[in-house]
From TrEMBL:
Keywords: Pantothenate biosynthesis. It catalyses: (R)-pantoate + NADP(+) = 2-dehydropantoate + NADPH + H(+). Pathway: Cofactor biosynthesis; (R)-pantothenate biosynthesis; (R)-pantoate from 3-methyl-2-oxobutanoate: step 2/2. The keyword Transmembrane does not apply. GO terms for molecular function: 2-dehydropantoate 2-reductase activity. Residues 197-314 form the Ketopantoate reductase C-terminal domain. It comes from the Bacteria. Its EC number is 1.1.1.169. It comes from Celeribacter neptunius. Gene3D superfamilies: N-(1-d-carboxylethyl)-l-norvaline Dehydrogenase, domain 2, NAD(P)-binding Rossmann-like Domain. This is 2-dehydropantoate 2-reductase. InterPro entries: 6-PGluconate_DH-like_C_sf, 6PGD_dom2, KPA_reductase, KPR-Related, KPR_N, NAD(P)-bd_dom_sf. One of its GO terms (cellular component) is cytoplasm. Residues 8-107 form the Ketopantoate reductase N-terminal domain.
Length: 342
């Protein structure tokens, strides 16, 4: 199958956007990567590079600051808090037929979308920009399972098979366009599957993010350390328990803590994306990964006291990750809340 006539926009030339651009360049589709500042110059000069466990892809692709014309598929590879601005700035790329695929971690703004109505969730799309520009029928829910970081030369380094679960968030989408996009992703080497219930996939990813990302940003631990250190593992699995309880009230049975702990250990010494942000002094995805789920649970009469305490620890920290002596004090406070809820 040829994909030469397929126009794909990718917003965000960080870890995931760079990796996806490199992979999709192999499909033959016309790919344009939206980048900014020095990163835009670097992509224009040297293209994109991905090292996928020794399989190196180097590709020259188009890059721009803003997309000016409609594309067939638009992947949004920015942090959750940058989603609305990225869509608003590039709205010329979004026609009625454009498939829009936000790849950000966290509770998606469309979680309760119905045909014709995206709905509102706490902390997500607070100014209604996404709801104003996008129609639910064109949004594809997506979960990217990939651990990618970038070296000092702008080369994305991936340590597992790129796997994407995606599916419509409500009825009424263009099934033929979706099938073709999946074929194009596969041609690029992204293992892609159509999800019958993409919300479930999102929640499975979110339980892993919520249990580890904020804890690692606070303590500086890697995923392996969370899985192997009793004190961190107890807190991570108790955070997962709180979230699993809420997910159960929504009709979703999320995987067990044994499954999660194996996942953390298998990931090795990977710094979660939130730990990478903490180390770099960048804003954290706390609204999408932590505050929105907490507030959703509270609005329904539930609570997540351990998660609330962890958010508080992060809010009060003057530097992240906190220094080692502060880690033990913070963990002791978290253990107290954990034990009170056990
Ligand atoms: N890294 C990973 O392994 C995984 C990440 N994820 C999720 O994927 C999403 C992206 O993560 P990741 O790639 O790691 O994040 P990065 O921070 O590495 O990349 C985000 C990029 O988006 C750019 N950006 C933000 N807003 C705009 C805009 N309006 N126009 C153009 N560029 C923009 C940023 O540019 P600038 O630097 O100029 O701000 C940055 O280069 C996050 O939600 C993350 O949680 C999911 C699975 C795994
Ligand atoms: C690797 C994983 C699943 C850790 O929660 C992730 O998605 C991230 O780092 O943001």
């Amino acid at each position: 199958m040829s994909f030469e006539d397929l126009k794909i926009g990718i917003i965000g030339a960080g870890n995931i956007g760079t990796a996806l651009a490199a992979l999709l360049s192999r499909s033959g589709a016309e790919v344009c990567l939206v980048a900014r500042g020095a990163r835009l110059e670097a992509v224009r000069e040297a293209g994109v590079k991905l090292d996928d466990r020794g399989d190196v892809i180097e590709a020259r692709i188009a890059a721009c600051e803003i997309l000016e014309r409609p594309v067939d598929a638009l992947f949004i590879c920015v942090k959750a808090q940058g989603l609305a601005a990225a869509v608003a700035t590039n709205k010329a790329a979004i026609g009625p037929e454009t498939l829009v695929i936000p790849l950000a971690n966290g509770m998606p703004f469309w979680f309760y979308a119905k045909p014709g109505e995206i709905g509102h969730l706490p902390y997500l799309d607070p100014r209604g920009e996404l709801a104003a520009i996008l129609s639910p029928a064109q949004i594809l829910g997506a979960v990217m399972l990939m651990t990618v970081r970038m070296d000092d030369h702008g080369r994305a380094i991936s340590s597992n098979t790129p796997t994407l679960g995606l599916g419509p968030i409500c009825d009424g989408g263009n099934e033929a366009a979706l099938s073709r996009l999946i074929a194009c992703l596969e041609a690029g080497g992204v293992r892609s599957e159509l999800s019958a219930d993409v919300r479930e996939k999102v929640l499975v990813k979110l339980i892993a993010n919520l249990a580890t990302n904020p804890l690692t940003a606070l303590t500086g631990a890697t995923l392996r350390e969370v899985g192997e250190t009793a004190e961190l593992r107890e807190i991570a699995t108790a955070l997962a328990d709180e979230f699993r309880l809420w997910a159960g009230t929504q009709g979703y049975a999320l995987p067990s803590n044994d499954w999660l702990v194996d996942l953390f250990i298998d990931a090795g010494d990977f710094p979660t994306s939130m730990l990478q942000d903490a180390r770099a002094g960048r804003p954290l995805e706390l609204d999408a990964i932590c505050r929105a789920p907490l507030e959703m649970a509270r609005r329904e009469g539930g609570d997540m006291p351990l998660l609330a305490r962890l958010i508080d620890e992060l809010d009060r920290a003057t530097e992240l990750p906190v220094p080692p002596e502060a880690v033990s004090k913070a963990l002791a406070r978290l253990q107290t809340v954990r034990m009170a809820g056990a």
